């Protein structure tokens, strides 16, 4: 299996500093600041990138589960909501909520929810995160 790479550079102190990140493949890049991370200002932040990674991984795992069960999906759309909260010892990512909607002919809501739960428990990003934070799931058919 390949090893994926991304880079990030931060310049300056926390309040006045700026950061840039990019994928090793060159497929994406962007910037971030303390204001985009902690104040909800326009722009990206590490939690948004983590949420994108989790939504992508989960969607692929769910599609694989459904296909393996004989019901390949027409589409899977996942929104991941990554919550950063201030704790006594500093900021902490506390929750990742996955909200998924699938268009899957021939699958009932219970089967879809079961396949989604399996994907939540077994996608590689979920496995990396679940020992450190709560991962919630909401699954619906379109």
TrEMBL record:
<dbReference type="InterPro" id="IPR003718">
    <property type="entry name" value="OsmC/Ohr_fam"/>
</dbReference>
<feature type="region of interest" description="Disordered">
    <location>
        <begin position="1"/>
        <end position="25"/>
    </location>
</feature>
<dbReference type="GO" id="GO:0004601">
    <property type="term" value="F:peroxidase activity"/>
</dbReference>
<dbReference type="Pfam" id="PF02566">
    <property type="entry name" value="OsmC"/>
</dbReference>
<dbReference type="GO" id="GO:0006979">
    <property type="term" value="P:response to oxidative stress"/>
</dbReference>
<protein>
    <submittedName>
        <fullName>OsmC family peroxiredoxin</fullName>
    </submittedName>
</protein>
<dbReference type="InterPro" id="IPR019904">
    <property type="entry name" value="Peroxiredoxin_OsmC"/>
</dbReference>
<feature type="compositionally biased region" description="Gly residues">
    <location>
        <begin position="13"/>
        <end position="25"/>
    </location>
</feature>
<dbReference type="InterPro" id="IPR036102">
    <property type="entry name" value="OsmC/Ohrsf"/>
</dbReference>
<dbReference type="InterPro" id="IPR052707">
    <property type="entry name" value="OsmC_Ohr_Peroxiredoxin"/>
</dbReference>
<dbReference type="InterPro" id="IPR015946">
    <property type="entry name" value="KH_dom-like_a/b"/>
</dbReference>
